[in-house]
Please model this.
Amino acid sequence: MKEKLIQFFKKPRVQYWLGILASNLVGALLVLLTPQFLTVISAAVGNPSVGFLSFSLFIGIPIAMGVVSAYCWRKLDFTTNNYFTASLLNTLCAICFSAFLLHEGTICLIIVSPLLYLSIASGSIIGRYMFRENKVQMQLLPLLLFLLAFDAIAPHHYQNVVTDRVVIHARPERVWRYVVAFPPIKAKPTFWLFKAGFPPPLQSTVSGYYLGAARHCIFEHGIVFDEKIVAYQPVHQITFAIVHQPPHPEILGHMKLQKGEMLLQDNGDGTTTLIGSSWYQLYVYPAWYYDLWASQIAREVHLRVMNHIKELAEQA
Amino acid sequence: MFHFVIKRLRFATRVPGLVHCFNALLFAWNLCFHCEIVRALDAVETAVAAWPGIVRRSHHYGGLQFDCAGREIGHLHGNGVLDIRFSKPMKDSLMQAWKVVEHHSLPHSGWISFWIHSPSDVPQALELLQLSYRCVRGEDSL
Model:
């Protein structure tokens, strides 16, 4: 029986799938333990940034998963390309587990998958060289623990603003009519993430044209951002603070929109430059990676709204 | 980046596991932007591994080392650099006739570096390794 079991685990196909299974099990275990560890360390050092999704989760754990899979694959005589291909399958399995167990949204999974794949693939390459001598080497463990500790101590307060400009062939007075509130956008979205299911902006409504008025920015799928006008200069500026963000799974806990602003600049030649800005805070790290996505999404939201305003103002 | 790390961050090689992380980072970079280097490195590894007496192991500074009879014949880094040690006279003659350059961190030694950019560089890399292999086996003099 024991001999049969040994023979079974020596089969290349079994070792291949065992690598994927073991790495996902280790990954699931670390996903459960890491936030607890981060919370304890953060509290111990008095770091207030608790509750964020840090780079330990998106880089450290996938690297550890890759290392575990490489340990199981060490006798398969894989080439580097084989490791990259097998890591792709490993990543797909990890994404499926995340979808079922963590209830992550499709867009979140699309966004996280390149980072996850590169981390898992890098981990498998690290493991490939670590286990080449066919010995269990734990030399990476202190490094991963250091990464965790550093993550717990590091500040997590990333804010950014995205600004876009559109030139409209209409005078500011005409443009202003559609800036504070605008009717539903009927044009089909062109941005690929909107097509993939990320809700595009639809309409904006307002309770009145004055400072302190309530504004609602309505996105598709019934998502409504409650806003309050905090700066109001007719035909020149409107700034609104986000007072309530909908609990949508694609953005909940990942980012917080803080405020938005529309500025109108009279170009003196019958045209107006409409400048739209959005301020947001990220709760997912590494910020350099997630901000690539967040800024692009903010930009596409701006452009969809601003091009709609341009169309309405130029037709009027 | 490779030269900066080699020259300025050499002390980091003492951190256990860090050289493997750096090597994996080079591979990940190549996976994203220079897939042909990964293919070429795989081709070199597969060919050399088939030679009699070759043992593959991790290089001390990250990468893959080929040994024969307990002696190194050369090593590959994740960014496509093949490093081989020859005698000084042999290095000088190779540098005149081949596309080899001074070693990235030991320019005054017998070490040479050969950059593998694409699968078309594989035959020349294999020739260099074959030369070193024959020297190590005593078929040629270093």
